[in-house]
Amino acid sequence: MPRIEKVRGVTASQRIYEALRGQIIGMEIAPGTALQEKQIALVCGVSRTPVREAILKLADERLVDIFPQYGTFVSRISRPAVRDAMVIRQALERTAVREAARHAGKADIARLKAGLTLQQAAHESGRLADFHKADEDFHQMVAEIAGHPNLWRVVRAEKAQVDRCRILTLPAADRRASVMAEHAGIVKAIAGHDPAAAETAMARHLDRVLPSVDALADAHPDFFDVPETEGPAPLLAAAIPR
Question: What is the CATH number of domain 79-217?
Answer without folding.
Answer: 1.20.120.530
